[in-house]
Amino acid sequence: NAGVMQNPRHLVRRRGQEARLRCSPMKGHSHVYWYRQLPEEGLKFMVYLQKENIIDESGMPKERFSAEFPKEGPSILRIQQVVRGDSAAYFCASSPRSQANEKLFFGSGTQLSVL
Amino acid sequence: GENVEQHPSTLSVQEGDSAVIKCTYSDSASNYFPWYKQELGKGPQLIIDIRSNVGEKKDQRIAVTLNKTAKHFSLHITETQPEDSAVYFCAANTNAGKSTFGDGTTLTVKP
Question: CA-nearest residue of chain B to A99?
């Protein structure tokens, strides 16, 4: 049973380009969460999605960032017109249910570097 | 919203000694407290968790305690080994899956 799969592992973009980060949850999991981790900091919640629905996007910047989790295929975190401050590790996690005490299973992350 | 503080930020112990990491939270509605271990270049992995109706939980060399009145919880690792060296994060959950993380503790176990 494969774990949470994220790709690419490393992504380099120049300022102004678009970044697309992909996340395939564990088999049987329909809840996906995206977190951002800056160097030597904890993980900051960005967005929580179920299939075809954004449930909570309170941690997402208002501009340039968007997320989706289509009926078929992986969840996508999209960052338009990237800036240097977007450089960070982006982690995706999944769970089978939406209860507050549900365990999260994390992927290995995508390290985004903006030149 | 929830705020989680974690101490210390770095911890160095001798192999075989115990390590203790402490966290406090602000939202009394939080009812689930997981701990994660993150190794270099990897995502966080759950190592132990505790629910608000339990005061203590143990799994081999790892234990977690929770004091709801004081709003703090702690991770205890006994008989530390070099492979325990990693960054450890505490977290608190109020809403579904939306964990609020502490800033992490870098644990170094010296052989």
Answer: B96
1-30 in chain A: CB under 8 A from chain B: 4, 6
pLDDT per residue as tens digits for the range B6-57:
999 999 999 999 999 999 999 998 989 999 999 988 899 999 999 888 789 9
Q: How far is B111 from chain A (nearest CA, A)?
A: 24
Q: How many Cα neighbours within 13 Å face the side chain of A29?
A: 30
Q: Which residues contact B65 (CB under 8 A, 6 or more apart)?
A: B50, B55, B56, B73, B74, B76
Q: Give the whole-angstrom CA distance, residue A53 versus residue A51.
A: 6
Q: What is the DSSP letter of B84?
A: G
- The model's pLDDT over A14-51, given as tens digits with 9 standing for 90+, comes to 999 999 999 999 998 889 999 999 887 789 999 999 98
β-bridge partners, A112: A11, A88
Contacts of A99 in chain B (CB under 8 A): 96
Integer Cα distance of A65 and A115 in angstroms: 18
Nearest to A107 among B4, B43, B96 (CB): B43
* Residue A33 near chain B (CB below 8 Å): yes
A104, closest residue in chain B (CA to CA)? B97
Alpha carbon distances (Å) from A84 to A14, A22, A73? 9, 20, 29
- The CA dihedral of A58, A59, A65, A69, to the nearest 10 degrees, is -70
